[in-house]
């Protein structure tokens, strides 16, 4: 829960330093922590400087939230004017816990508070040189800063008789001033005091005066000669001396110190932003808030029994009733506000709390601590749930409180039975180079539960395949084991009376029963004997018996049987007994004539106590027996009755080995580059095979590493475009987890993509249809050619027949001419003319036949056999006719 003294609605920052700059409100609130570290405020180990803590007060203004350190808040009702001089000086306010950080002054009284101590240094232990005054509504009414400087302008400069009217310069005026070789006389760079006023008093809405460096007085104030600086008018805007601080009712003042004004940027930014809020009307009022926090738990950490390990660790003695001293426990809270919300700051207010015991996370007991009428804690009862019969069993213990404001605080711890566990320090995972010896215990230590160094007892083991002297690359698990042996010697605790038997713990107790009534113990007064912690001499445990040490009860076990031979001083009133299987099987009774009773019940009376002593010393104790001795009453009386039942309860020697184990991993560096190869040296792809160029490239590379996974990276894709055919040169790196890599370079040839099955089927169908059309067309054409060829062939045959007929006629004429020499020359000439006419007709017919034959050839893809024969016949006929002509000429 957070109590707020004023309301924050809008934050806009205007920073004034060398100029005016804006911090955007959209960036959110800037948290201003001491040393710029929240850890220092929360007192965490990660704090880079002092753990200054927190006062739980914050002031949020102009985009910043300032977190005040512990002890930095001052409340008006606690500032007591003890000397009644009307002011609060350094003797009337506590010194700051951390004076290098800011303070918060809150006037929660009904009157104005005046602070005065020299130049204010005493009020804040050291000089806080920046003071921001906020009114009861959170409005910044005045800022005093004599550390940082601002550009200011005197609007009345040069006006005769007018007082200076300073204001903050605008950015344009600042730029002009900085750029000017000769600086304007109406402007200066100065420390300032700014006081907000009504615009009727000053149209700027504020009054401003320059301050002297490290002074609260006006920079132009010059005291009269020989007078103290306080004389005169050291401020033009204050009605009191500026070394004083006036805090009206309801106002809060924030001061800034050394670490706020330069070393840590967020704090410095906040300081420099304050002046700008006097000219920025959008800045919302400051919010001064107290963060309600849980109670402080006192005393819980003091229960810790192991300073070597963080946290509260409590040890419960093994075998003993667990008790916890809770007297130092308390839970305190700061009640900051009354019912009306007024600051009251009541510190160290007790609140109830609980101790909660858990077993494996389950609550098994809750002890309540409430407050009585005297404001003292009342515990509801003791802790009864913690059992101490199992070594190293761990219970949880929690201290829990809730403040009236509902803030819950929880502190956790553990209760370990017997001993705290062993622990390791410095165990962490490591990274090594291969081949170099590894010290597996480098930086590692081990301690037992009491903080004893047992590092030398650490046993180191590792998984198969690892060699610390020559480690090979890989990841390996290292196991560290350490054991510590504890030994608690046996103890005897004898109960002196019946009432004491109720709380025996694990100490030894011997009870004697009268066998006449074996079910009921004979608890006669002093028959049950107990070790007296305040007088250990009454207890004899595995030591020699001597009756001169009267009042002893002595127990001797088998491991110390030789002590029986040293028993001496036996006389009247001295007894001894041997216990086996819980029964007195052998007794020596000095109360009754030095009578010795044997295991079979027979008796022997010794002549003297010395004879009885000799008999006792001569007894050889068996492994399953023990002996008890006593003298007088009550120690000697119980052993007088042979056959009585004896019950021995308690704790013998305790041996316990505390063991602890921890594991860590070692990664041995791999310095061997992975193997990489190009799958196909003549790599051809097309755009249909891959979704991306990278996928196409990596598909042609295989890589392997002996020790880790390999990542393939395309270093250079050569501009590979799967849509553009061509040859591209690419480079691929194969890198293992140890950053070793191998580079391969190869060419990728991009070709036009192949047709898909559907596309191929479609083309086949189209080609089949086209082929069928061609076949049909060729069939039709061929039929026409064949018909035409038939006609042309008949013409050729007819022409050939005409040639043959002509040749026959010529031959007949020749024959007639030759055979009938009686023919006249005129007749022969006539016959020759006739033959020539027939030959000419035949030649004309042959020319037509040749033309038709060539046409037939042109219309067909080849020359048919029959056409070849026809052409041959025609040629033969022509040749024959030619021969005839020649022959005729010869005749």
Which key terms come to mind for this protein?
flat; 8 helices; 891 residues; Immunoglobulin-like; alpha+beta; eight-stranded mixed sheet
Structural commentary:
This protein is α+β, with helices and mostly antiparallel strands and 891 residues long. It has 6 domains: 290 residues, no CATH class; 115 residues, Sandwich (Immunoglobulin-like), CATH 2.60.40; 66 residues; 149 residues, no CATH class; 82 residues, Immunoglobulins (Immunoglobulin-like, Sandwich); 122 residues. 18% of the residues lie in helices and 31% in strands. The chain is built from 8 helices and 47 strands. Strands 7, 8, 10, 11, 12, 13, 14 and 16 form an 8-stranded mixed beta sheet that branches. Strands 33-34-39-35-36-37-38 form a 7-stranded mixed beta sheet. Helix 6 runs antiparallel to helix 7, helix 6 packs parallel to helix 8 and helix 7 runs antiparallel to helix 8. The longest helix has 63 residues. The N terminus and C terminus are likely disordered.
């Amino acid at each position: 829960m957070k109590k707020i003294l004023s309301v924050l609605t809008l934050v806009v920052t205007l920073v004034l330093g060398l100029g005016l700059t804006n911090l955007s409100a959209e960036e959110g609130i800037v948290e201003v922590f001491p040393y710029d570290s929240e850890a220092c405020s929360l007192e965490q180990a990660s704090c880079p400087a002092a753990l200054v803590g927190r006062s739980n007060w914050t002031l949020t203004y102009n985009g910043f939230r300032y977190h005040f350190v512990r002890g930095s808040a001052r409340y008006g009702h606690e500032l007591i004017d003890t000397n009644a001089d009307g002011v609060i000086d350094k003797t009337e306010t506590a010194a700051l816990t951390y004076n290098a950080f800011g303070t918060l002054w809150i006037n929660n009284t009904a009157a104005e508070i005046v602070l005065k101590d020299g130049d204010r240094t005493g009020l804040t232990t050291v000089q806080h040189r920046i003071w921001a005054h906020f009114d009861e509504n959170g409005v910044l009414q005045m800022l005093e800063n004599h550390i940082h400087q601002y550009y200011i302008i005197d609007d009345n400069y040069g006006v005769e008789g007018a007082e200076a009217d300073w204001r903050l310069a605008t950015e344009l005026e600042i730029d002009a001033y900085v750029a000017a070789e000769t600086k304007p006389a109406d402007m200066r760079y100065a420390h300032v005091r700014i006081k907000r006023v009504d615009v009727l008093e000053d149209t700027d809405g504020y009054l401003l005066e320059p301050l002297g460096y490290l002074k609260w007085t006006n920079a132009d104030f010059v005291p009269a000669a020989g007078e103290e600086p306080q004389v005169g008018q050291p401020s033009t805007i204050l009605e009191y001396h500026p070394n004083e601080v006036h805090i009206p009712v309801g106002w809060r003042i924030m001061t800034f110190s050394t670490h706020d004004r330069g070393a840590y940027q967020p704090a410095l930014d906040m300081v420099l932003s304050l002046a700008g809020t006097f000219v920025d009307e959008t800045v919302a009022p400051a919010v001064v808030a107290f963060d309600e926090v849980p109670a402080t738990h006192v005393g819980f950490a003091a229960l810790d029994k192991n300073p070597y390990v963080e946290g509260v660790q409590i040890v419960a003695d093994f075998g003993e009733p667990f008790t916890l001293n809770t007297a130092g426990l308390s839970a305190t809270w700061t009640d900051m506000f009354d019912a009306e919300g007024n600051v009251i700051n009541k510190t160290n207010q007790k609140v109830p709390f609980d101790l909660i015991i858990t077993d494996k996370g389950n609550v098994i007991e809750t002890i309540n601590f409430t407050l009585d009428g005297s404001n003292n804690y009342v515990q509801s009862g003791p802790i009864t749930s913690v059992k101490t019969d199992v070594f190293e069993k761990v219970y949880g213990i929690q201290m829990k409180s809730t403040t009236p404001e509902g803030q819950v605080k929880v502190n956790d711890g553990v209760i370990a039975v017997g001993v705290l566990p062993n622990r390791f320090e410095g165990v962490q995972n490591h990274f090594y180079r291969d081949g170099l010896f590894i010290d597996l215990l480098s930086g590692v230590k081990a301690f037992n539960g009491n903080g004893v160094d047992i590092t030398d007892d650490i046993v180191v083991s590792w998984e198969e395949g690892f060699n610390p002297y020559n480690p090979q690359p890989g990841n390996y698990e290292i196991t560290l084991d350490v054991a510590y042996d504890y030994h608690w010697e046996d103890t005897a605790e004898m109960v002196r009376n019946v009432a004491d038997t109720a709380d025996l713990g694990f100490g030894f107790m011997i009870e004697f029963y009268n066998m006449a009534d074996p079910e009921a113990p004979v608890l006669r007064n002093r028959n049950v004997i107990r070790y007296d912690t305040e007088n250990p001499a009454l207890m004899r445990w595995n030591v020699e018996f001597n009756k001169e040490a009267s009042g002893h009860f002595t127990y001797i076990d088998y491991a110390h049987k030789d002590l029986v031979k040293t028993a001496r001083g036996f006389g009247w009133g001295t007894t001894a007994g041997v216990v086996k299987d819980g029964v007195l099987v052998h007794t020596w009774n000095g109360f009754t004539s030095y009578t010795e009773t044997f295991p079979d019940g027979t008796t022997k009376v010794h002549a003297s106590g010395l004879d009885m002593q000799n008999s006792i010393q001569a007894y050889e104790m068996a492994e399953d027996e023990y002996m008890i001795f006593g003298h007088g009453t009550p120690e000697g009386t119980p052993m007088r009755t042979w056959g009585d039942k004896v019950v021995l309860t308690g704790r013998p020697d305790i041996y316990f080995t505390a063991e602890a184990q921890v594991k860590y991993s070692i990664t041995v560096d791999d310095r061997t580059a992975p193997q990489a190869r190009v799958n196909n040296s003549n790599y051809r792809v097309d755009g249909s095979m891959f979704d991306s160029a990278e996928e196409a490239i990596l598909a042609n590379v295989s890589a392997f590493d002996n020790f880790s996974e390999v990542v393939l990276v395309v270093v250079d894709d050569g501009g590979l475009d799967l849509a553009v055919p061509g040859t591209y040169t690419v480079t691929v790196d194969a890198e293992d987890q140890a950053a070793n890599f191998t580079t391969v370079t190869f060419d990728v040839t991009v070709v036009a993509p192949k047709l898909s099955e559907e596309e191929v089927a479609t083309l086949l169908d189209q080609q089949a249809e086209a082929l069928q059309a061609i076949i049909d067309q060729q069939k039709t054409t061929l039929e026409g050619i064949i018909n035409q060829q038939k006609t042309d062939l008949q013409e050729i045959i007819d022409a050939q027949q005409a040639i043959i007929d002509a040749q026959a006629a010529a031959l007949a004429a020749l024959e007639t001419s030759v055979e009938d020499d009686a023919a006249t020359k005129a007749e022969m000439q006539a016959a020759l003319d006739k033959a020539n006419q027939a030959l000419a007709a035949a030649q004309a017919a042959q020319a037509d036949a040749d033309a038709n034959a060539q046409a037939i050839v042109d219309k067909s893809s080849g020359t048919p056999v029959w056409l070849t024969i026809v052409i041959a016949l025609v040629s033969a006929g022509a040749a024959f006719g030619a021969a005839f002509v020649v022959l005729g000429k010869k005749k």
